[in-house]
């Protein structure tokens, strides 16, 4: 049995790892889909890997139980990719019913209207988007018969579009090369200064580089125009936490959970925050819920094990460390042996 001093030292060390787990898991990657209950993260993986038809099928199942605005937005984007414009129109409309100030989605819907030959409707959406000072919408010239030639294909001197630079940045992020990712995202934003996805990725890059105030600026830009953007809310909460602005982090997690009650990533991160604030019972309750929602999510078992250890419940801590170890989380195996 470890001495109290050694136990305290180890708990602090694990907490630092929890911080990395908390930050890492908000990326919404690396999850295993089940046949019956798809998660939003599973569907995003399909989108990010170019399986747009699979993404639509995934979101069809997900939306049946979780009719969240972000799911409609992603399905709309996927439907555009496979040129199912009627379905994309319905999805964007559903999203805008819940997020009436999203200038980027008005622009997206305008392009769909244009593809469908609904020019008057397209122009109306462009006008709304431009009213929110979305540059692409203000500069876009509708084709009279559909199939526009507007700003989405703008290129730089190298012939690359904003989408090209984002793809490059994602590759750098996957390789943990955040400095080059930020450079690529700067290039994307130079072409389209209102591109939500670029701000989200660049915020992540800044955060991983420890440039937290710059990360905050990017997430704030997103939330100014899309206050219900779950990624921006959760990621900003993580940044506030890193800056020890705990009350603001808690507010962001509260807002996220008011939008998506069962978001286990946010619940896990709130549990970490509660732990650091000394709210051990609240932390354990958060991890309990994460495990009930996602029983194969190893970090929640590790985090709950740390909470039990802090509360001197070594039996429960050992059980959770063993479970996390069984789920291939190597740190948990070490903690189970050291307990």
Outline of the structure:
With 339 residues, the chain is mostly helical. It contains 19 helices and no strands.
Features:
single chain; 339 residues; mainly alpha; Serine Threonine Protein Phosphatase 5, Tetratricopeptide repeat; elongated
Question: Could you tell me how far the N terminus lies from the C terminus, measured between alpha carbons in angstroms?
Answer: 6 Å
Beta-strand residue fraction: under 5%
How would you name the CATH homologous superfamily of the domain at 1-28 and 262-339? Answer: Tetratricopeptide repeat domain
Average of per-residue pLDDT values:
81
Number of strands: 0
Overall spatial form: elongated
Low-confidence runs: 15-37, 145-152
- Which quaternary structure do these chains form? single chain
H/E series = HHHHHHHHHHHHHHHHHHH
| Class based on secondary structure composition and strand pairing | mainly alpha
Question: Helical content, roughly?
Answer: over 70%
* CATH fold-type name of the domain at 1-28 and 262-339: Serine Threonine Protein Phosphatase 5, Tetratricopeptide repeat
Helix segment count?
Answer: 19
CATH class membership of the domain at 1-28 and 262-339 = Mainly Alpha
What is the architecture of the domain at 1-28 and 262-339 at the second tier of CATH?
Answer: Alpha Horseshoe
- Main sheet record: none
> Could you tell me the radius of gyration in angstroms?
22 Å
